[in-house]
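Problem: given the chain below (163 residues), write out its structure.
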Amino acid sequence: MTLPCMSCARIGTSCCKNYQISLTTGDIQRISEVLGHTDFFTFEPPVLEEIEPGYDPNWLSLIMGSQGMVRVLKRTEQRNCALLTKNGCSLPYDCRPLICRLYPYTYTEQGILGIDQACPISQGKDWGPVLDQLDMPENKAKQWLALLYAEVREEIALRHGVA
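Solution.
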């Protein structure tokens, strides 16, 4: 069986290319501990074309700062994630942004919806075993999802002075 990520690599596409990867303050802390610096993110206006259908319609309002900017991983001129190498992500799996760990799941704050139709595994009838093989079972995704929204909500509360 060909793993989905290998299929993406063969056709020259990836979930690490052409997307703004939003970061929580928790993501920044986890990544900076591994890299030893914080020069891996920037603030940009949101690219609305990059917001996929099937994702949380409230997401942008949750992550956008007061200046209309979102905090994202830096990207190369080719619009690839700056942490992407020819061998994949340069970060250990447990330090990757929660958004990256959740992909290819689609979700809202209320729960997991399914699999992104752009991901090759969505074409199979039974993608559960593939996700298990990639060590991304739905029970882990639910934990990452809860952590993602907890970190986003915590940051919103801090911005508004609510402790």
